[in-house]
Structure formats: structure tokens, C-alpha cells
Amino acid sequence: MREPAAMRSQSAVRRRPGLWRKSVRAGVIGFLYLAPALLILGVFVYYPLIRSIYLSLHETDFLGRTILFVGLDHYKELLSSTRFVNSLRVTVLFTLYTVPVGLALAVPVALLGNMRVRGITVYRTIFICTIAVSTAIASVIWAWLFQPTTGVLNSLLRSIAFRPCAGSRILAGPS
Length: 175
Fold this sequence. Notes:
By secondary structure, the chain is mainly alpha-helical. 71% of the residues lie in helices and 4% in strands. It contains 6 helices and 2 strands; from the N terminus they run H-H-E-E-H-H-H-H. The chain has helices at residues 5-15, 17-56, 73-80, 82-113, 120-145, 152-159; strands at residues 58-60, 66-69. A two-stranded antiparallel ribbon has the order 1-2. It is extended, with a radius of gyration of 29 Å.
């Protein structure tokens, strides 16, 4: 008479006691590899999400301290607002119009870049140059914003009566 499958697997584990220990150890090692990512996800995604839901169910002061539990009243007010319903409709329509068009244009461009035809290196170079140039322009703009003597950051600091960052070289780097 044959043993049931559950009994066979238990007897196999009993015959090889190191197998269970190895699987537990592999699970612990896997969790240790995941722990930093889970910690970052918890701190920067799940905690703010749960906190936002909690605060949305309360009336708060300007510092975010809860004053009064209001339940779903904020959501009822939001869903009854014509401005919200209109903005939601516009957002859905915008998404329905732009996402399919973007995909319909992006897929052929990507497939064209993957083809083996004459002159494809020129196409790839032009395609990559657009990405590189936009990154370079963004870098120059940020450099102008954070320029120690005449940047926009120092102008904003002066306008609110703070000392500019020019002498301290606060944004110049670690050295």
C-alpha cells in the first residue's frame, strides 16, 4: 500500500534533517538581503501613506496635530464638489488621449532602433543625443540656480533677509 503524498514528504524531511535547516537559513539570508529595501519602502512609502489616511480622517491644525475625528466627512465633501469631479474627468480624458498615443509612437521608434539596417547608427546617435542634450541643459540650469555669487538661490535668500551662500560655499562640494 502506498503512503499519501504528505507522509512521503514528511518522511523525506526526516531522512535528511539538514535539508530543513538549509531551507530556513536560505529564507533568513533572503530576508536579510530584502531588509534594507523593505525598510526604505516602509519609511518612505507605507508610513506616509498610512499617516496620510489617518490625517484625512481628522481635522488638523497647521502643524498637523489632530484636533477632531471627522471620519469620512472630508471625502464626502470632496466627492460632492463640482470642481473635483470636473478635474477628475479632465484628468481621465487627458490620460485616455495621451497614453495610447504615446505608446503608439514609442513602440515603433523603439522597434526601429532595434533593427539591423543600413544607417541605423545615425538614427541611434540622433536618438541618444536628444537624451544627452536634455540632461546637459538641466545640469546647466541647476548650476545657474546654485551659482554661489549670482544664482537664483542667493537672490531668494537675500529677499528674505538671509546672508547669501557665496562666502560659505555651502553648495560648492564636500572639499
